[in-house]
Write a structure and sequence with these properties.
The protein is an alpha+beta fold and 588 residues long.
Length: 588
C-alpha cells in the first residue's frame, strides 16, 4: 500500500521517492513502448506517468475504440520495472485537441463542461465506467504497478466548482480506486484554493523556482509531501513560431533543487512523442502560456511534433538533457541507499533504437479528386460537429443575391483556415483571427469556402469550441442563407479513385516507397504549403511550411518491407510533386 505524510511517500512501509517521467502511450506506437520505457529506467526513473485522452477512446457517443492500449501500456511499464501514475481526465490539457474532451460532447454542453452539470457528468460517468476497471485491477495494492490516480487536471486554472471535483473523486472511489487520489495545479493561491480537495493529495506544476512552489504548497497543505507533478523541463511548439529549447544545465539544476527539497517529481515530458493524426491542440491569447508571444493571429495551433525538447527526443533518442538528468538522479539515489535497494538495482543500459532510413525521394504519380460526403442543405452553415465530424474538411457553397452590386464578403467565426473561391476562381486564403485583404463578390456569384479545422484550444476559457464556419457569411451586412455543406473526414484515409494527373492543390496525390528493410524516417513535402501526409493509410499529421517543423516523424512500425503508400493532401496554393525521406528531424 502507498502511504504518505509531510515528509514523503512509503510503499509497504519502505520509503519511496517517486521519480517519474511522462510518456503518453497515445503519442507513440505500441511497438515502441518497450524502448521508451526502458529508456526511462536507464535514466534512473522508477515511474512513468500518462494522461488518458477521452476523445481518443470515445470518438462518438457510446462508441469506444483503442481501450486495450492503456492496460497494455501499464503492463509493459511493469515489465520494465516501472510504477505508473494514471491521469484519466476527463480533461487533460496536454496540448491535445480539446484537452481530451470529446467534441461531440462539448458541442452539446458548451460552457457546462467541467462543471457539476448533470448532462456533462452523465457522459463522464459512462466513460469512466468503461475505462477504469483495467486501471483498478493494476493498482499496487492488488499486485499491479499503479501508484496514483488523478481526479482532474489543473482545475484551479479553469473553474471553482468544488461539487464537480467531489463528484469525480467520489466516483473514482466508488469504482474501486484504492491508491491515493491527487490533484495538480499551478503554484498560486487561487489555483490551489480552487483545484484541491480535502483528503486528496495536492501536487504542483512548475518549471522554475521549486523552493517557492513547494513553500506555497506547504502553506496550503502542510500534511502533504512536496511533489512536482509536472516539472516543465521543456516546452511545446506552435506553428509559425521558433522551436522551444531550454538549456540542459539550467533544467538539471532545477531538477536537483526539487530533489534537494525532498520532493518527488514527474518530468513533463520525459519523452514527448508525436501528435499523430489530428490530435494536436491549440492555444489562444486569452489564456497565455509563459514564453509565448503571438504573431499573425491570437489563435496558435500546436505542431504535429511533440518533441517538447525533452530528455528523450521525438524518436526516443537521448537529447541534450538526458545525461545531465541521469547524473542528478544517480546523485540522489546514491545518497539514499534504502531507495536504491528498493529499486532492486535494475537500471539497464540505454535500449537500442531502429536505424534511420537513408535519404531518398518518392515521386507522386497518381492523383484523385477529394471524395466529399453527401451534401447537407441548411439555412446557415452547419459546424463540423453538426455534420458528425471531429476534424476534417467541409466545402461550403453559397450564392449571392441576383441582381446585386459587387459588395464585400465577410466570414464570421472561421475555424480555422479556408480557401475562398468566387465563381470557381481561387480568390483568397483565410486564417482565423488574421487580417486579410478585403474581398468582394458580385451579385449572383457562387461563393465556395473549403474550410479546414486545426487543433481545438486545449487550455483556458475556449476549451470546447466548435469548428467550421461557426458564425456566417455576410454579403456586406446581409447574411447569405441557403448553404450547401459537403464534409470530408481525414481519418481514415478517404476512399478515392486514383489515376493519372498532375500535381496540384486540393487533390490526393500518391506515391510508392519501396523498402528492402524498414526503419525510422523523417518525411518532408518539398514545395508544399500546408496539408496532410498519410503512410499506408495512417495519418501522420499536418505539415506546414510556416515551421518550425518541416519534417514529420515516421516510426518504423508504420512501414513494411516492399511497397509503402504515401499520400499527400496539399491545401495551400502549392503543387508538391514528391515526398522526401530525410536522415534527421528538422524542427527549425
Amino acid at each position: 500500500m502507498l502511504t504518505y505524510d509531510s515528509t514523503g511517500f512509503a510503499l509497504d512501509g519502505r520509503p519511496l521517492r517517486i521519480l517519474s517521467g511522462a510518456v503518453h502511450y497515445f503519442r507513440t506506437r505500441p511497438e515502441q513502448w518497450p524502448q521508451r520505457l526502458a529508456a526511462l529506467r536507464a535514466m534512473g526513473l522508477n515511474t512513468v506517468e500518462t494522461y488518458v485522452p477521452w476523445n481518443l477512446h470515445e470518438p462518438a457517443e457510446g462508441r469506444y475504440e483503442r481501450l486495450p492500449e492503456l492496460p497494455a501500456f501499464l503492463d509493459e511499464a511493469a515489465r520494465q520495472g516501472l510504477w505508473a501514475i494514471v491521469r484519466p481526465g476527463p480533461y487533460i490539457c496536454a496540448e491535445w485537441d480539446n484537452g481530451g474532451l470529446p467534441a461531440w460532447l462539448t458541442a452539446r454542453v458548451g460552457r457546462r463542461a467541467r462543471t457539476s452539470d448533470r448532462e456533462y457528468l452523465a457522459a463522464v460517468d459512462a466513460y469512466l465506467d468503461v475505462l477504469l476497471p483495467e486501471v483498478v485491477a493494476r493498482q499496487v495494492d492488488r499486485g499491479g504497478n499503479v501508484l496514483l490516480v488523478q481526479v482532474e487536471n489543473e482545475y484551479g486554472s479553469f473553474g471553482s466548482d468544488r461539487a464537480y471535483l467531489r463528484h469525480l473523486a467520489d466516483g473514482l472511489l466508488r469504482r474501486g480506486v484504492t491508491v491515493p487520489l491527487f490533484t495538480s495545479d499551478g503554484p498560486t493561491d487561487h489555483m490551489l484554493a480552487a483545484g484541491t480537495l480535502p483528503g486528496v493529495l495536492a501536487t504542483v506544476n512548475f518549471g522554475n523556482d521549486p523552493e517557492a512552489a513547494f513553500e506555497l504548497l506547504r502553506r496550503h497543505r502542510p500534511q502533504d509531501p512536496p511533489f512536482c507533478m509536472e516539472y516543465w523541463n521543456g516546452w511545446f511548439d506552435h506553428w509559425d513560431k521558433p522551436h522551444h529549447t531550454r538549456d540542459a544545465a539550467d533544467a538539471a539544476d532545477a531538477l536537483r533543487r526539487i530533489l534537494a527539497a525532498g520532493g518527488s517529481v514527474n518530468l513533463y515530458m520525459a519523452h514527448g512523442g508525436t501528435n499523430f493524426g489530428t490530435g494536436a491542440g491549440a492555444n489562444h491569447e486569452d489564456a497565455p502560456h509563459n514564453s509565448t508571444d503571438w504573431t499573425r493571429s491570437p489563435y496558435q495551433p500546436v505542431t504535429t511534433s511533440y518533441d517538447y525538447d525533452a530528455a528523450l527526443d521525438e524518436r526516443g533518442a537521448p537529447g541534450a538533457k538526458y545525461e545531465p538528468f541521469r547524473a542528478v538522479l544517480a546523485e540522489f539515489a546514491a545518497e539514499q541507499p534504502e531507495q536504491a535497494r528498493f529499486l532492486d538495482d535494475r537500471t539497464p543500459a540505454f535500449p537500442e533504437l531502429p536505424a534511420v532510413l537513408p535519404a531518398g525521394r518518392v515521386e507522386l504519380t497518381a492523383f484523385a479528386e477529394l471524395p466529399f460526403g453527401p451534401a447537407v442543405e441548411a439555412p446557415v452553415p452547419p459546424t463540423l460537429e453538426e455534420l458528425g465530424l471531429a476534424h476534417g474538411l467541409v466545402r461550403y457553397t453559397f450564392r449571392t443575391p441576383e441582381p446585386g452590386p459587387e459588395l464585400p464578403l465577410t466570414v464570421e467565426g472561421l475555424r480555422d483556415r479556408a480557401t475562398l473561391r468566387i465563381d470557381g476562381k481561387r480568390t483568397a486564403a483565410l486564417y482565423r483571427g488574421a487580417e486579410g485583404t478585403p474581398v468582394a463578390a458580385p451579385g449572383g456569384a457562387v461563393v465556395e469556402l473549403l474550410v479546414e479545422s486545426l487543433g481545438r484550444v486545449n487550455y483556458g476559457p475556449r476549451v470546447g469550441e466548435t469548428k467550421g464556419i461557426t458564425g456566417g457569411v455576410r454579403y456586406e451586412r446581409q447574411y447569405l442563407h441557403g448553404c450547401r455543406a459537403e464534409p470530408l473526414p481525414l481519418e481514415p484515409l478517404p476512399d478515392a479513385e486514383f489515376g493519372p494527373g498532375e500535381p496540384g492543390s486540393e487533390v490526393l496525390a500518391r506515391g510508392t516507397l519501396t523498402l528492402r528493410s524498414t526503419g525510422d524516417t523523417f518525411l518532408a513535402v518539398p514545395g508544399g504549403g500546408h496539408g496532410y501526409l498519410w503512410v499506408n493509410g495512417f495519418l501522420l499529421g499536418r505539415y506546414d511550411a510556416a515551421g518550425p517543423q518541416t519534417t514529420l516523424y515516421c516510426p518504423q512500425p508504420l512501414l513494411r518491407e516492399g511497397a509503402n503508400d504515401l499520400v499527400v493532401l496539399e491545401l495551400g496554393d502549392a503543387a508538391p510533386a514528391a515526398v522526401e525521406l530525410r536522415g534527421a528531424p528538422d524542427l527549425g
